[in-house]
Amino acid sequence: MVLSLIVVVDENNGIGINGTQPAYIRDDLKRFKELTVGNTIVMGRKTFQALPKGALPNRRNVVLTRQQHFIADKCEIIHSPDELYNLCAPEEKVFVIGGGDIYRLFLSKANYIYLTLIHYRFEEIDTWFPKISEELWRIEIREGPFTDVKSGFSYSYINYIRR
Ligand SMILES: NC(=O)c1ccc[n+]([C@@H]2O[C@H](COP(=O)([O-])OP(=O)(O)OC[C@H]3O[C@@H](n4cnc5c(N)ncnc54)[C@H](OP(=O)(O)O)[C@@H]3O)[C@@H](O)[C@H]2O)c1
Prior knowledge:
The protein has one domain (2-162): Dihydrofolate Reductase, subunit A (3-Layer(aba) Sandwich), CATH 3.40.430.10. It is built from four helices and ten strands. The chain has helices at residues 26-36, 45-49, 83-87, 100-106, and strands at residues 2-9, 14-16, 40-44, 60-64, 75-78, 93-96, 112-118, 127-128, 137-147, 154-162. The protein has an eight-stranded mixed β-sheet. A two-stranded antiparallel sheet has the order 2-8. Residues 7-8, 15-16, 19-21, 43-47, 50, 64-67, 79-80, 97-102, 105, 127 line the site of NADP nicotinamide-adenine-dinucleotide phosphate. This is Dihydrofolate reductase.
C-alpha cells in the first residue's frame, strides 16, 4: 500500500483540543475530501467517535482500537497497526487521518505526509503531531500562505516525501 499521513497542525505541531480540532478551514476540508475519496482512511477510535456522522462516505473506513468487541457501522475494525498490511492491497492508497496516537504509530511507515500548517499558535492544545525529521523527510511541494475568509486564519499546504 501507499501510506500517507494527512493532518492539520498549528505552529507548535498542535492538532487537538479537548477531542476536537483547533480549527476547520473550508478549502482544506475540500482538499481532504479530494485526496481521500475512493481510497482508504485509517483512524483511531477516538477520532472515529468524534466524526459527526460516523464513517466518511465513499471511502474504505478502518478504525484502530484495543477493544476486542468494538463495532462501528460501515467500518472495518483492526486491533494492531500490523493488521492494516493484511487488509490492504499493494497498490491501495491509504490515508492515516489521526489522531495523535495513530499518527505516532504510522509515521515511521508512511511514504508521504500531507500537512496543512495553520500559521497560528492555539492555546489549550492537548494533542500533537510527532516531530517531522528533516533527515528523513523532504518537502516536495509547498503552497500558500492562503487566507481562510471565514476564520481569518492564514495557512499553507506542505507535502513531504520520505527521503
Ligand atoms: N488536526 C488534525 O488533522 C486532526 C486529525 C484527527 C484528529 N485530531 C484530533 O486528535 C485528537 C484525538 O487524538 P488521540 O491521540 O486522543 O486519539 P486517536 O489517535 O484518535 O485514538 C486513540 C485510540 O486509538 C486506539 N489505539 C491507539 N493505539 C493503539 C494500538 N497500538 N493498537 C490498537 N488500538 C490503538 C485506542 O482506542 P481504544 O481506547 O478504543 O482501545 C486509543 O484510545 C482529537 O482532539 C482530534 O480532534 C486532529
